[in-house]
Amino acid sequence: MIRVVVADDQALVRAGFRLLLDTEDGFEVVGEAGDGAEAVVQAKVHRPDVVLMDIRMPGTDGLEATRLISGDPELGDTKVLVLTTFDVDEYVFDALRGGASGFLLKDVEPVELLHALRVVAAGDALLAPSVTRKLIAEYASRPENRRLHPSALRELTDREREVLALVAGGLSNDEIAEHLVISPATARTHVSRIMTKISARDRAQLVVLAYESGLVTPRRL
Q: 4-aspartylphosphate occurs at which residues (predicted)?
């Protein structure tokens, strides 16, 4: 059972998501929030698997709420899936930097939303859709958004840097294994070690770091 908190400032939107999830096997909506502050409270009370987070809400917005939830050690198992109205929104990249595991457009098809929640709840990051790569590439290409020095990767081996670049390209562990001619288990081990070394929450954080450190650029992907 995937337990979800729905955070959106529009009651009808929340009701729509609740109706969809409560009628689908394997999902349970355990809480709702009309703003970011309440989303944080609901996350602490219910410890959901995923918070479905609208990024633009009054008061404490979804960006700040994402940072607070992702930065709380007691909510280490709670993932944040961000919702946005726009396919290119600079706040979404900030949400990924702040700990979100991915994002979706609000007009997403129901089957895609359910898939996304399953992916994020399983501990993976929703990075495969082309719109996500487009967003990260466009926003990260701006010089003012390069926040990390390449030395941030100094703890990684050459092979781990190679794996990190492939993760940033949107490849799954199986695809990385095929590309490097290694076993899927070895690919998973590399990814896990990279996350440990750079204290990344999930694959979304790996992508952010790869761009911010300059390991990869939009032109290379």
A: 54
pLDDT tens, 11-32? Answer: 999 999 999 999 999 999 999 9
For 72-85, the pLDDT digits (tens) are 989 988 999 988 77
Segments making up each domain of the chain, as ranges: 2-126, 147-220
pTM value is 0.70
CA distance 14 to 5: 10
| Cβ–Cβ < 8 Å for 105, 131 | yes
Amino acid at 102: G
Q: Which CATH architecture has domain 2-126?
A: 3-Layer(aba) Sandwich (3.40)
Which of 151, 35, 137, 47 lies closest to 92, judged by CA?
A: 137
Check if CATH label 1.10.10.10 holds for domain 147-220. yes
Count CA atoms closer than 13 A to 202's CA, side-chain side.
26
For the chain, the three-class secondary structure string (H helix, E strand, C coil) is CEEEEEECCCHHHHHHHHHHHHCCCCEEEEEEECCHHHHHHHHHHHCCCEEEEECCCCCCCHHHHHHHHHCCHHHCCCEEEEEECCCCCHHHHHHHHCCCCEEEECCCCHHHHHHHHHHHHCCCCECCCHHHHHHHHHHHCCHHHCCCCHHHHCCCCHHHHHHHHHHHCCCCHHHHHHHHCCCHHHHHHHHHHHHHHCCCCCHHHHHHHHHHCCCCCHHHC
Which residues, at least 6 apart from 214, have a Cβ–Cβ distance to it below 8 Å? 146, 148, 150
